[in-house]
């Protein structure tokens, strides 16, 4: 077939026009999107800072509330399937080991400048296997609350506290290792050994120091630490009216102490009627309570926008967002600059000072089993059901070691 020159010229002209259109008409870039899961009870806590960051950075962020009781297990299902969120926020640091071991988290790459703005113990709570898997936003810890009329000065040792003056809430069957931990740690019996990479899975409370603590619990018992299942309202009223001098509890108790309940309606004012102090040493060494931190994780979903997710996490760990957590929910910011602002509140200031040496609750995979066996043995000793506290503590330690080495 004969091809005419005019047809070739027309084809060339058409191609050239198409090429010019391709060059002169740029593609419209899609708006970046992030899917963020949050504990439904904390959605309002994060709504403003998330929206502020999204607007400033031109990112569409969908903040989806999830039932806290199902959130952790849901992640293990949806992330491997590629349908999970980019981030999870408002999550506790002690989920870290469980989720990291399940392969649903990405390590977070924080700059040294960002890391330096955060409380080191809060940051360490999201450390697992030497890798940083999350970023802290706010923290909490227990302290010693005392009735100022009955105890105008804070005790510096447990020996200054007499029988019947102190309450540590605990169950007759399950104990409460969390609230008793500052007592235990003051005997030099940490739950696990730790390194610069965080908690290990090697038990630290199974030696002579742990045995000494167990014997102390047995000797003091309910006459010193208060009756098992004493009750929330009884503790609140006791510290308000002075029938109890000291209560080891957390900031969650303050609104009840200030406002009272149906059994004790008088108002109480911090640093006038009650005060928050450091927990003294009972065993001769420094008392270290557990610290809990809530923060954020980046998921390992194949579709995760890591760059924007990291930037959002960094913002949520910053000063402006930290002040928001305090203003909205009276939470203690993990950001140091935000904590300075929040410390204008005497409650925040006192609990932060009392928790300066707090250690993050362990985040290892087997922790659920540890809490259970630990607490039951503690309760048995405290309530006088143990005929040989040292042997029972040793038996518990061996059982825990078996669990830990099987993981």
Description:
43% of the residues lie in helices and 18% in strands. It is globular. Helix 8 (208-225) crosses helix 16 (389-406) and helix 12 packs parallel to helix 13. The protein has 16 helices and 16 strands. It is α/β, with parallel strands linked by helices and 407 residues long. The strands form four sheets. Strands 1, 2, 3, 4, 7, 14, 15 and 16 form an eight-stranded mixed β-sheet that branches. A four-stranded mixed β-sheet has the order 9-12-8-13. A two-stranded antiparallel ribbon has the order 5-6. Helix 2 links the parallel strand 1 and strand 2 (60-66).
How would you describe this structure in keywords?
single chain, 407 residues, alpha/beta, eight-stranded mixed beta sheet, four-stranded mixed beta sheet, 16 helices, 43% helix, 18% strand, globular, disordered N terminus
Write the layout of secondary structure elements.
Layout: H1 5-24, E1 33-39, H2 43-57, E2 60-66, H3 68-78, E3 87-92, H4 96-101, E4 105-106, H5 112-115, H6 120-124, E5 127-128, E6 131-132, E7 134-141, E8 143-147, E9 166-167, H7 177-185, E10 192-195, E11 198-203, H8 208-225, H9 232-241, E12 246-249, H10 254-259, E13 274-277, E14 290-299, H11 306-316, H12 319-329, E15 332-333, H13 336-342, H14 346-354, E16 359-360, H15 367-382, H16 389-406
Parallel strand pairs: 1-2, 1-3, 9-12, 14-16
Antiparallel strand pairs: 3-14, 4-14, 5-6, 7-14, 7-15, 8-12, 8-13, 10-11
Helix pairs in contact: 2-12, 8-16, 12-13, 15-16
């Amino acid at each position: 077939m004969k091809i005419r020159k005019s047809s070739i010229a027309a084809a060339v002209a058409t191609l050239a026009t198409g090429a010019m259109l391709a060059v002169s008409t740029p593609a419209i870039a899609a708006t970046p999107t992030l899917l963020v899961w949050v504990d439904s009870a904390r959605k309002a806590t994060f709504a403003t800072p998330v929206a502020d960051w999204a607007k400033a950075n031109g990112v569409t962020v969908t903040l989806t509330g999830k039932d806290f009781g199902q959130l952790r297990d849901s992640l293990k299902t949806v992330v491997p399937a590629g349908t999970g969120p980019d981030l999870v926020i408002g999550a506790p640091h002690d989920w870290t080991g469980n989720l990291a071991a399940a392969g649903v988290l990405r390590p977070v790459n924080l700059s040294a400048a960002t890391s330096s703005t955060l409380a080191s113990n809060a940051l360490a709570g999201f450390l697992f296997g030497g890798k940083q898997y999350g970023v802290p936003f706010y923290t909490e810890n227990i302290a010693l609350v005392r009735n100022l009329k009955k105890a105008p000065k804070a005790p510096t040792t447990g020996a200054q506290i007499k029988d019947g003056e102190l309450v540590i809430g605990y169950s007759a069957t399950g104990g409460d290792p969390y609230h008793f931990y500052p007592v235990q740690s003051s005997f030099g019996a940490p739950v696990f050994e730790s390194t610069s990479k965080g908690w290990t899975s090697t038990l630290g409370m199974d030696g002579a120091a742990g045995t000494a603590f167990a014997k102390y619990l047995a000797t003091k018992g309910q006459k010193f630490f208060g009756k098992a299942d004493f009750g929330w309202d009884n503790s609140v009223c006791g510290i308000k009216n002075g029938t109890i001098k000291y209560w080891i509890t957390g900031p969650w108790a303050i609104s009840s102490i200030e406002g009272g309940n149906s059994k004790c309606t008088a108002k109480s004012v911090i640093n006038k009627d009650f005060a928050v102090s450091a927990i003294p040493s009972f065993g001769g060494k420094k008392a270290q309570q557990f610290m809990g931190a809530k923060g954020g994780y980046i998921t390992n979903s194949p579709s995760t926008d890591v760059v924007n997710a990291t930037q959002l996490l960094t913002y949520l760990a910053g000063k402006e967002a930290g002040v928001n957590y305090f203003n909205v929910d009276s939470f203690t910011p993990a950001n140091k600059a935000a904590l300075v602002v929040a410390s204008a509140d005497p409650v925040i200031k006192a609990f932060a000072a009392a928790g300066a040496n707090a250690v993050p609750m362990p985040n290892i995979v087997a922790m659920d089993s540890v809490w259970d066996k630990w607490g039951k043995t503690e309760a048995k000793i405290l309530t006088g059901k143990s005929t040989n506290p040292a042997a029972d503590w040793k038996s518990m330690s061996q059982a825990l070691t078996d669990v830990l080495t099987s993981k």
